[in-house]
Amino acid sequence: MTDEDKMKAPCPTCRGLCNVIIHGEKKSEWEDQIDRHNFMYGSTTHKLLECCGCNTVFYYKDSWNSEVGDHDFEGNFTPFHEIETVPGTGKFLRPEWLDQIYRQDFILHSILVEVYTAYENKALILASTGLRIAFDRTSNFIGVPEHLTMEQKVKQVFEQGYVSETEREHLAVVTNAGNAAAHRGWMPDESDFESLLRTTEKFIHRVVLRDHRIEAIGALIPKRQKKGAKD
User: Fold this and answer.
1) Residue 14 half-sphere exposure, CB side, CA atoms within 13 Å?
2) Among 12, 21, 155, 226, which one has the highest count of C-beta atoms within 10 angstroms of its own C-beta?
3) HSE on the CB side for 229, CA within 13 Å?
């Protein structure tokens, strides 16, 4: 058995992300013309998996499309994957890049795992509070002082250029929602929570997993000379 025959997937029996063996796989890609100039595209992968822990055999479906995802400042597109299993585990929203966070910041990774676990178990108050903590930890990652209020931290990440004005407003909603959940028992519905989660994920991905090579290349590019300057 090679590494290509293994992966991690949500086991319906263990109720968590487990090492699994791939026994079969079928992938299909599609395109759909919307109008003369625009079209959608995506992919669906079907797999037959076996959990390495409990030996449960289950069906796994991974689908994504070009309309749902995140564009970074360089224009790169990262799609959001929708995962389904039979037997079911409920919604499973953990992104593919979650393991990369572990290598960058173990504590932030632990916070996110608890957020996803809480959501998968419909503990939406805990999950919402966890998003606020995840933002706080991520802001510390880029040197935002810990003693600042959440409002001030959101302002700082905006002033440092990590988010746009619109994203700044969205992060303010995330932190306010987490505060309301923690102190006033406020609970969003699943759709509202997913919106809060996606906003937090975009921020974390941009801050923690940003491509430092782009910054290095930018520093090497010669600056444009002012008009009238001598050669």
Assistant:
1) 18
2) 12
3) 6
Tokens representing 101?
Answer: 């966070």
Q: Does the pLDDT value for residue 213 go beyond 90?
A: no
Cα Rg, the chain, nearest whole Å? 21
Q: Does the pLDDT at position 105 exceed 80? A: yes
Q: Identify the pLDDT of residue 2.
A: 66
- pTM for the complete prediction? 0.61
| Cα 120 to Cα 15: distance, rounded to the nearest angstrom | 9
Tens digit of pLDDT for each residue in 4-27? Answer: 688 988 888 887 778 999 999 999
The residue to which tokens 């008009």 are assigned? 227
Higher-pLDDT residue of 9, 120: 9
Q: Where are the alpha helices (DSSP H) in the chain?
A: 98-104, 106-120, 124-141, 150-159, 165-184, 190-208, 212-220
Crossing angle between the packed helical segments 106-120 and 124-141, to the nearest 10 degrees: 160
Residues contacting residue 224 through CB under 8 Å, at least 6 positions apart: none
Give the Å distances, CA to CA, from 86 to 14, 20, 93, 149, 185. Answer: 13, 15, 16, 44, 33
> Domain limits of the chain?
1-92, 96-222
Rounded distance between C-alpha atoms, residue 146 and residue 143, angstroms: 8
Q: Which of the listed CATH numbers 1.20.120, 1.10.1660, 1.20.1630, 3.40.50 matches domain 96-222?
A: 1.20.120
